[in-house]
């Protein structure tokens, strides 16, 4: 892409007075890196002349009920944060690009995508950094890209989408700030309870995993994976005994498309990484993100605005076993990692994080994801995967008044093995898989991914 011209930068504050207070953040917020979750929304054809004013005025309105998005973080004892709701505002950037959306290809090139989202100065004092930043880039073809940076310490993906879609409903005139589902900013639902209890499980998901040095019918393809995952049983029936999910696992249900696709990605990535190497005994694991809103005995309310997603990891497998077993083997391990996230396990995880006086060890400065499967700076032969699923999230509901987006996706992936699974834009059952692998493994991954369908 050619250079993008920045025309203006302004601060958008709530259009009505909002509470001036300090919110305590839960441990589910605290372990997140001080970084942004960055997403691009692509709209192909529209009259961009009125877009900016509409986005600004509606953003000013939505920041009233969502006033924490206009706040700032403060660093407190133990490398933890608190949220100062001070109406300092969100940053809004206007930009233009002389080319067309076709120049962006399929939005897979990181260098081009970086220009479509706001730059972040992580060297600034955290008290000065906005928690929500918008860049609106107009293209000569009439297309438009909205790049959004949302603090991951502030909210998880579910809450971010709730905010963005509520903002869009105001922009298109369907809702007002008073008629939207009012968000709940109470973070106490995921705080350690008093009197404090020590963690009941060993939470290996918060320990760094070892590294090694060194278009057809979409519905039919997904259904093939589900059928294959459910058509055979693995020869080794190892079920994790440390969590109370055994009774559920004894009554198996068909593997979901998420479990089938994630298991398939794991197998194909392992095959690609195993090319011309004897790694049959090398351990490999998958980190997944689990939405715990409905996992607790007292479910978190739908209007909760914060982080209610925790990480889980599969039990270790090895390359040789993973690639020799049927798809049901990897799908089953993904299921076990998800199903172990019960009320008791979530509570124990919160208690585990609370036991640490200083929590900075859980964060990285270069990524919005946890450090569990991250390889910093250079490729070291990462055998693991980190998988985030957006399959159940209404990411295409962001109609600001000119139609639904033609593409929604993360800006870029930060480390080898990081993966996003997203629904296609046309509600046709298609699925988009975004994955970062070392260049020498990517072609092999694509080959195995499609030939094994």
Automatic annotation (TrEMBL):
Transmembrane segments: none annotated. GO terms for molecular function: acyltransferase activity, transferring groups other than amino-acyl groups. Pfam families: Transferase. Belongs to the plant acyltransferase family. This is Spermidine hydroxycinnamoyl transferase.
